Amino acid sequence: MENESRMERKKRELKQHILEVCEQLFVFEKSFENVTMREIAQRAGVSVGALYLHYKTKEDILTTIISEFLKRHLEKMRLILGTQPSGIGKLTRLFDYFCEMSADPYMTIFARIQLNYAALPKILKAESAATIKTQFGYLVDLIEEILSLGQKDHTLYLSDSPKMAASTLLRLMISLFQSSGLIQKELVPIPPGEVDPGPTGSFLILKKYLLRSFFP
Predict the structure, then answer these.
(1) How does residue 79 score in pLDDT terms, banded at 50, 70 and 90?
(2) Does residue 10 register a pLDDT over 60?
(3) What is the pLDDT of residue 1?
(4) What is the number of other CB atoms lying within 10 angstroms of the CB of residue 138?
(5) Burial class (CB in 10 A: 0-12, 13-18, 19+), 115
(6) Do 51 and 67 sit in the same domain of this protein?
(7) Sorting pLDDT into bands at 50, 70 and 90, what band is 144?
(8) Percent of the chain with pLDDT strictly greater than 90
């Protein structure tokens, strides 16, 4: 059993090492499309065969990185939101957390990963893609619970169902995260000097207007 535990630990450490190598390649040196599995194996110091034992495709690697990111933040959200008793308190804290989340170094990784439509079908078929969809579902459920509580304690006003509002809110958040790289490249200009051009500044503005929309 001791040998098995040691082997499992080494396996986890190697998989994590491969993920870190891919973050460097996908973001800072090349792009997702221009990196091959052979190059990943060389940089990670493993054989191509050994790499395929852990990850079948580079899409599996990318979706694993995203899945771990979502899992980590979902756990933190649940802990933090549990300290707020009211619907408005939870929603305000959720928006604050998205602002904090936008400063996570991993957000830079996702904003800078270059994807094209040809790559999307393969990404959606990757093993970890199902986990990502499940985690997004958990996040929608979490937001729905907040909005439903706000309806019951009369601290929030909803003109649509909590489920519809939760799904729409999450889509807005994802869109803002995805556009952060464009904003930073000034392809989508914002008034200079008024707000941090990164996603955190944009979330602060979004928070202000979204909270107003939930008041009766």
Answers:
(1) very high
(2) yes
(3) 47
(4) 14
(5) middle
(6) no
(7) very high
(8) 38
92 with 69, same domain: the answer is yes
Q: Which domain holds residue 69?
A: 58-213
User: Do 141 and 43 belong to one domain?
Assistant: no
Asked whether residue 17 falls in the same domain as residue 96, the answer is no
Find where tokens 């489920």 sit. Answer: 163
User: Is pLDDT at 42 greater than 90 in this prediction?
Assistant: yes
CA neighbor of 139 nearest in space, from 75, 90, 64:
75
CB environment 159-192: b (16+ within 10 A), e (fewer): eeebeebbbebbeebeebbeebbebeeeeeeeee
CA 14 – CA 46 distance, rounded (Å): 9
Same domain, 24 and 109: no
- Asked if 88 contacts 150 with a C-beta cutoff of 8 angstroms, the reply is yes
User: What is the pTM (predicted TM-score) of this model?
Assistant: 0.79
Query: Tens digit of pLDDT for each residue in 101-143?
Result: 877 766 766 665 655 556 667 777 777 888 888 999 999 999 9
